[in-house]
Amino acid sequence: MNMNVLIVDVxxxxxxxxxxxxxxxxxxEITETDNSEKAIKWFKQQPYHLVLSDWNMQTEEGNYLVQxxxxxxxxxxxxxxxTQQDQKQAIDINNGSxxxxxxxxxxTDSLRETLxxxxxxxxx
Length: 124
Hints:
Layout: E1 3-8, H1 12-25, E2 28-33, H2 36-45, E3 50-54, H3 62-72, E4 78-82, H4 87-94, E5 100-103, H5 108-123
Parallel strand pairs: 1-2, 1-3, 3-4, 4-5
Helix pairs in contact: 2-3
């Protein structure tokens, strides 16, 4: 069974990089968008096994998306991608609403470790 992953990042280059990394790891059904509103719309329409979202988006911070997704589903793992300098702020604001963080730039191995943590339990 392919796992559904939602990628939210304002940068097309970052989204494409994540898609490439995911393709090296295994078969995934991937939905990608550059804004929170589309992500919320798609999240309402189908279940996702994991959400990878940028913390620092142009129009709002990742906290808005996290809170909206948590209002819809408490169980789906939400992993924020962030730079080292934004990490503390993201942690402080989210108060445990996110499942994990990946610090940019991340490698295929670090992405694989994160996926293994959260997707293995859902595939069984």
